[in-house]
Amino acid sequence: MEVIAFYTFAIAIIASFLIVVTSKNVLYSMSALASGMVLISGLFFLLNAEFLGVVQIIVYTGAVIALYAFAMIFFDSAKDVKESRRSRAIFLLSTFSSILLVLLMTIPMSSDAVSALYPMHQDVGNAQDVGMVLFTKYLIPFEVAAVMLLVAMVGGIVMAGKKMDRYLGNDKEEISK
Amino acid sequence: MDLGIFIFQTLIKILLVLLIFSALAGFTTYIERKVLAFMQRRLGPMYVGPFGLLQILADGIKLFTKEDIIPTNAIKPIFKVAPVILPVSAFVAFTGVPILPDIQIGDTTFQFLIVDSDVGVLFVLGVMAVGMFSPLLAGIASSNKWSLLGGARTAIQLLSFEVVTGLSILAPLMLVGSLNLIDINNYQIEHGWLIWQQPIAFVLFLIAGYAETNRTPFDLLEHEAEVVSGYATEYSGMRWGLFFIGEYVNMYIVSFLVVLIFLGGFGEGTLLDGLCYLAKVLFFIFLFLWTRAAWPHVRPDQLMWLTWKVLMPLAVINIVVTGLLVI
What we know:
Chain A has helices at residues 2-22, 26-46, 50-74, 88-110, 126-135, 139-161, 172-176. Chain A has 177 residues and is an all-alpha fold. In chain A, helix 1 runs antiparallel to helix 2. Chain B is globular and about 60 Å long.
């Protein structure tokens, strides 16, 4: 059962990310990206990591919708985007480096040296397990990530908050009211 | 062999949910018309069948037989897929909602809940939010200005109200200490309904629920006076109908969630409790319709103001206060 489910999800994920990379239409690649991200959660559910699976869905729904908003601003979705493939060297180099990256990530996993340090407990829930590890072993990275998010938020407010007290529209009459 | 029985049972449960709630979605449109008519001193549908009851059937025949128009300039695959996403995600989310308490027949307990997960609430809310891709994609793919505006409004609405939904529900979850809907229900047997402990969270969650289902005070995606019919402008026939099946099923999900989290859910699961549970859910469906009759639309800038300047700070303060009390 699990094998069938795994391969179904795996093929669907690879197919949708293939569309993301090869399609020239913004809308196609964005939609494929969204479906791929949602499908990845299926793999988490198969591994009984329910919490991570749900977080995957929630986080990437919001993130991809924000991307859609940018795509709507920058591109006309009815037309194909013209990609510039001027340099062959860059194309070859990026292909080579991505293959290298994949190998770097996968080779250690095939050996026996990698083992799970924090296995799941049967009696406590998935969310509790993740919480325990986050707040004990990985407390510092977690806090650093929180600080980074805070910095990003303050930066965003500063960027967006310029001229907030002034009216930027064309309709002068609305101010005088 | 156990696995076979399990798969068989699950399939039957899924079919039941699908049939019951797509039928209920149709029926709710009838109720909605009647309630609105009653509040506006009209009669509502009266001609087809007794009290206009067969109007649903007539609407169904119309939706199924109407020509399915796809605009020439639309991006066709996306245009065709978009209406399917909303009902699919709504029904998938419904698998995480316990529709009725477990029923004990002899030695075997029959569980109505399909996905009994530790992260029940998050699962339901997360999958429901995926449905927002549907109006967004429909809006962009239609190649129509009004549709595009509707799609853009979907994006801001989701980004604003996801925050409020998440934050408002966090405080009651901190009290319960579990994300499982059954655990939340059982917590309220001992400690009383959570609405008394978390009134602010209740109001915030309800408001956010109206926004997630695009119901009236926040239905800017299809605001007739401003953007014709928003994302659904170019749709006709059953593709248009699918959007609305999804919307009504989402209404039911929000009502079930509000009752389960804040109003005691199904309690101990006796027959009386089960009936009360359904009555409470139906009350919230009625509240959806009531609000539609009583409230005007909200402008997009008012929506953003409401979310970021009122609801979100309130939710954060609520979490801080709850956290201090819990410690």
